[in-house]
Design a protein that fits this description.
Layout lengths: L11 H16 L2 H4 L6 H25 L8 H20 L1 H6 L9 H16 L3 H21 L1 H19 L2
Pfam family, one: TERT_C
InterPro entries: Telomerase_RT, TERT_C
Protein name: Telomerase reverse transcriptase
Length: 170
């Protein structure tokens, strides 16, 4: 059973940020990201799915807060950036390699960021009015990444299109 505990406090921003980072940690079991166990395409989809689940829970958490305590655009953007940084650290950490013998996850930071941006855009895009400025920032980041790594991003886009279509129609 999925549950979400919402903190109502004097510092909802701090709890929001910490809660979203922990939401990603919960989604990031090394078995799902290990390229010695999974195909590269499966690992990329698993990373995307972890970000999409985190984005969904982030949206639910924010929605549950009173209007006056909902996170600002600036806090949501900082939180997304920090989730990307955390994800890359977790995926490439030496401690994970020690715990899971033979663990291998060869993804670049730019790939991790693009997967996160794509997942957050997909989830928050359904709630456009509340997240218009965040979506504009996500679009700017996606455009920059795609300009830098267009060939690699096109391959990843094709992979995700099929998966998102499958999930949306399930």
């Amino acid at each position: 059973m999925d549950s979400l505990t919402v903190e109502y406090s004097k510092m909802p921003g701090r709890f929001f940020h910490r809660k979203v980072l922990n939401m990603f940690k919960i989604q990031s079991h090394s078995m799902f990201f290990d390229m010695s166990l999974n195909l590269r395409s499966t690992v990329l989809l698993n990373i995307y799915t972890a970000f999409a689940e985190t984005a969904t829970k982030m949206w639910s958490y924010a929605r549950s807060l009173p209007v006056a305590k909902q996170p600002t655009r600036k806090l949501v953007i900082k939180t997304i950036r920090d989730v990307v940084d955390l994800a890359f650290i977790l995926l490439r950490s030496k401690s994970r390699k020690k715990k899971s013998q033979g663990f291998k996850c060869a993804v670049s930071k730019i790939q991790v960021e693009w997967l996160a941006i794509t997942a957050f855009k997909h989830i928050l895009g359904r709630r456009q009015s509340r997240y218009r400025e965040v979506l504009a920032w996500l679009d700017t980041r996606a455009n920059w990444i795609e300009g830098e790594e267009s060939k690699m991003m096109e391959q990843m886009r094709k992979l995700l299109r099929a998966e998102v279509h499958r999930v949306d129609n399930a």
